[in-house]
Amino acid sequence: LNQLLESAFGKHLAIHSSKSDHPRGLIMEAQKHAQARHEGKSTGVAAPTSMCSRRAQCLQDWLRNESARTEITAWICLIMKGEKSHLESETTIAHLFVSSIGTARLAAARSWLHAMPTDAEILIIATHMQAANELTRTVVSEGGSRFGVQRLTPGQLASRIAAPELARRELAPSTSLSLAAVVARAVHRALEEGRIDRFAGVARRPGFAHAVVQTFEDLRAAGVLPGRVRDLAGSGKSLAALQGAIEDEMERLKLVDRAAIFEIAIAELAKDNVSGVEMPILLLDLALEDPLVQRLIATITERSPRILATAAEGDRTAIQALSAMLGTSGKVLAGEDASSLSCLQRHLFEETAPEARQLDDSVSLSSWPGEARECIEIARRMQAEAAKGMPFDHMAVFLRAPGAYRADLEEALRRASIPAWFAVGTTRPDPSGRALLALLACKAEGLSARRFAEYVSLAQVPQPGEPAEDSWTAPQHELMPISAEAIETDGNDDQVQGENPIFDPRSATLAGTLRAPWRWERLLVDAAVIGGADRWRRRLAGLAAELSARRGELNDNDAHAASLERTAADLEHLREFALPLVERLATLPSEATWADWLLHLRALVAAAIRQPSGVLSVLAELEPMGPVGPVDLATVQHVLTPRLRELTVFPETRPNGAVFVGPVETARGLEFDIVFVPGLAEKLFPQRILQDPLLPDHARLLLGAPGLATQDSRVAAERLALRLAAGAAKQHLALSWPRIDIDNARPRVPSFYALEALRAAEGRLPGFDEITSRAELSASGSPGWPAPERPQDAIDDSEYDLSVLARLKDTDPAANTGAAAYLLSANPYLRRALRARARRWIRRWTSADGLVEPDEEALAALARHRIGARPFSPTSLENFSACPYRFLLQAIHGLRPREEIEAIETLDPLTRGALIHEIQFRVLTVLRDHGHLPLDPKRLDTAFAHLDAEVTHVSEEYRERFAPAILRVWEDGIDAIRIDMREWLRRIAEAAGEWIPHRFELAFGLPEHLRRAADSASVTEPVAVLDGVLLRGSIDLIERRADGALRVTDNKSGKARVEANAVISGGQALQPILYALAAETILKSPVESGRLYYCTSVGDFTERTIAIDTKSRAEAKVATDAIRHSIEQGFLPAAPLKDACGFCNYRAVCGPLEYLRTSRKPTGPIAELLALRDRP
Amino acid sequence: VTEKDRSAASGAKLPSVLSDADQRELISSALDCTLIVEAAAGTGKTTALVRRIIALLASGRLELDRLVSVTFTEPAAGELKLRLRTEIEKGRLDQSRPQQERERLRAALPKLEEARVGTIHGFCSDLLREYPIEAGVDPRFEVAPGDVAGALFEREFDRWFEAQLANPDPAVRRILRRRKREPTFGSTTADEGPRGQLRSAAWRLVDQRDFPAKWRASENFDRDRTIDVLVA
């Protein structure tokens, strides 16, 4: 060690520090002395050249850590080289430091920066800002504050240098987005002029313009002019025409693309028009595939006095370019084969390999069932490392396929309570982009309600009453000469403004979501043939009327009434918000210049998008397109869709203590103790390597322009990505792949990159079977039971529970008594659920079966519902026989089923039934008032005329009120009703000799406001029948025979369900008898029979007539007594008839297995119910 | 079960040369002719295929970016690629091979990503992505996953159906006249109704559509004769 230090610093340097025993401090002090010596200053320190034994021990301990050894070696190499060069030359000092180990490269960079005075102006150029920022932060934390460190990406550098010249020439920079708009227009023109025949078949497809943008940018970056492209066989002529058209268009619009900005910047530098760039430059792991970047860097480094460039081994393009521009072959730190990690970093994708060896702890390779599980396991490993003292911000995840992993990783880290920071490329999607696209699609599809619903679902509805935000936001693009800090501030504002922590149940919005009725868009029905703002108004008004009508049928105490009121309020919110927005959409132009479009779009965004800055910054990129036009809505959509669909939230500055998550490209210039690289599976990493569709490789090779990407360079970039990710690891590299593609339910296999990694780390290439079995052995788990083997390894509570239960389920229950008892104390809801579940399946009736063994309080509440204490409708009493619990939920609790949206091809059955009843009532009333009853078959035509008039009158009234979605459906439904009613009337005429309609809609026990149409003999009080059974309801029809006998009829518009000889049908058909008994009481006249009349073609005009005699009265009493006893005992369990659950509205409450489950229970307590079901 | 186990179980000694060894040898050596290999599962077709590819590479007849190897499943394709990588490594380090052959195998390594070893669907998808102009498809097309395709279908069907309801064709009107049977207790199959029937028919049409047009633009291309020549 002493030899090493002495060889580095010679005898000039004294190491004498009382400030720190930490080797890093010692080395830094050594550097300061070296710097001071170069500058001719005295260190003022005596020169003991050996170190005290305690410090030496400390340093040796530190050097056992491999990454530290690498770091110190790099520092020393740099210092040695720097000193030597400095002595040799007083002019430019340029170094190129190459290593496969990120730590070594960064150590070199830090050392170089530390050697600079703290107020020296220095320019750090990095491929992404995160690397430059992290490096600066580390240097400042190690060596104290610095001033004058500028950090830029090549794009930002070019943009800033070119900005004055752009302004002088009145040129505006264009991004890929505005370029796409230019290309779309150029394509359109070229097509019309017949200049791109080759592309005519696909040129109008939405993806074509974006494919052209890619190829155009490649050609421009490589400096290929249209003249050279024209000579290519095949597409050359058309492509050159397109390239020329785009360039002409840009010139006309005074737009400059990225290539032009770089060219201007290079020219300005060459002309010495740029001041303040003659400063030391650090080129930090710069990507130099782009020839424009190469030329810019070469030009700017020419005027720099001191340069350090770092490059990853394997980045051949960068190394070659830097060597050429700096005039040095560079110092290569090869490293040692000390650990599996260093072997992997050194030999990955190289022909060399280490001696065969076992994998140590520095590299791991695992496979997990699915991407989601892979992310969970990454989070688990992070927790384990953090428990050992590793800070979270010393860990990173590099993703090659961010789209496949981002959401899963975010969820896994959230579950594990691990703070994480997602870099650009892995940030979460910004829904505002898709919200604007949904609104544009709404307009394009004739104001489609579904598209509008899609917009509402994206939680971007602004808070009502909030003023619209300033409708201009700076574009977020590196080519725009606007400071990144300003952009960050703008991006962050959304988060603050968007928060709505106060929950107000009356507010129209909640966290950006509009309160609207469930699946409201289905009620609007956006048939393509019908559209327009007027339709929206009419349909929403119709829906409101329908809700109001339904509410009117219920009394205030009905539970459903409150639900309908809430729905009506939500509908009002929808109307208030949607109608103005729809009208705004309706006024969007069909064609306009981009300037007009931007005006309209900004206004739309201000009115409709809650967090608009992301969208506005995208729109700002189109500003230079203002004079272009006219363009139609489809073009606007084509241009905006790719950008807005992929719009992401701009990341804030990375906080301390957060795990770094980024695309694998961001590994350049970064280092972490632990690096995770998931997704080492086929097609994920490496991704498919494909040629450009418009300019394939053979054409690129013919053009012979350096920098035009081909398959070779694409493969090299893919390999370099893995090398960079591996090189960023200091202590551990965790590679993994998903065994299953969960989305497509297909198995996955590792990519051969996993093989390469193992070969580099172990010195031998494993076979396919070996790699899969090894990875599976190191990582158990199945998708069906997502939990670790050991509960203490769980990342959250749910995993812990699953892990505990997994261990219990296959063992002897007796040996594990109480092992999961903690679940009962986890929370009261789980305790109740677990106990209820256990009770439901034991062989006795328990409170988990429904209303069983109620306490005193419940019995007291139930007393108000006893037979005789309150009226019941016959229909509700019929539910008891099907299932006592159904009766309890419906008749006593008043629980209403959630209303499903009906298919629109038929008239809603509820509306149909209401229409039929009202028509029947009106027709009979009119016939009676005109003296046409009994109906003479000879006067049937007159009756039909009355019928038609009433059908028309009632249906128009309903149509006006409900504004049916599709008129044809409504008219067909009314026609069907008309036909059924004619047949019904004809049959009345046929029977006129015997039975004459006497009373219609005879109501009893219903309050006045609930009786829309009622017979004059109706009573408001409930009617008592049998032994005090109180009834309420409305009898459709009471007929009288010549001898004064009465017949009660209940009209049904559905299918006949009651068997022919039934009396009470096991308690399921009580209406005929109970209505008859009620009619007897009201009219004080005996009723001969009760009848169910299925009075439509659906029911085939079937009749079920039940004689009202001693037997039927006794049967009805059996039924009501059974109900009476059950209520009195407080015993109303779920005990359904076989198959009754299949069509029960309360199936969601009980589940599908109630018949099976309750069949195992004792029959004694339900003996009376079972006996009732056996009655005829 | 290894060969050793089988041998021990049967008590018989395995033959030192397989009965079809000459055919296996032919697969690896007859590199200038087309072969169809038909064999039962587990008999070593993949191994033979990989050996043949290695032989083609070593002989200089093939470069990996000019290879197409398609199979039916992703796992099979992935396994093939991994085996290929392993065998190239073995061949590259095999000192018994001539230097030139080892050099060719070494030169193949950087092109492994370009080898078209995948499923038939994947190969077709790559072709369409690289030649969209010739194929007449959008250059940025995406293959819709099942759930996305289902949702797109539902949206389009609903729009079509609503339009039909407003002004039905005679055939649709006939189907609409058919009443939907109401559900009854004990019924095990739900009646789809007119809407369900039309949707099912439309989905079948989408799922089983066929493209009867010629798959190659050239008028003079004799597909049958070409296939006969290939398999002759």
Features:
A: 1176 residues, alpha/beta, 6-stranded parallel β-sheet, 44 helices, B: mainly alpha, 11 helices, 2 strands
Fold and architecture overview:
The complex is a heterodimer of chains A (1176) and B (232). Chain A has 1176 residues and is of the alpha/beta class. In chain A, the strands form nine sheets. In chain A, strands 3-2-6-7-1-8 form a six-stranded parallel β-sheet, sandwiched between helices. Chain A has a six-stranded parallel β-sheet with strand order 9-18-17-10-16-11, sandwiched between helices. Chain A has a five-stranded mixed β-sheet with strand order 22-25-26-27-28, with helices on both faces. In chain A, a hairpin with a 4-residue loop joins β19 (740-741) and β20. In chain A, α15 crosses α29, α18 (431-444) packs antiparallel against α19 (449-457) and α24 packs antiparallel against α25. The longest helix of chain A has 28 residues, at 559-586. The radius of gyration of chain A is 41 Å and the shape is elongated. Residues 6-22, 42-55, 81-91, 483-502 and 526-530 of chain A have low confidence and may be disordered. With 232 residues, chain B is mainly α. In chain B, 56% of the residues lie in helices and 3% in strands. Chain B contains eleven helices and two strands; from the N terminus they run αααβααβαααααα. The longest helix of chain B has 21 residues, at 146-166.
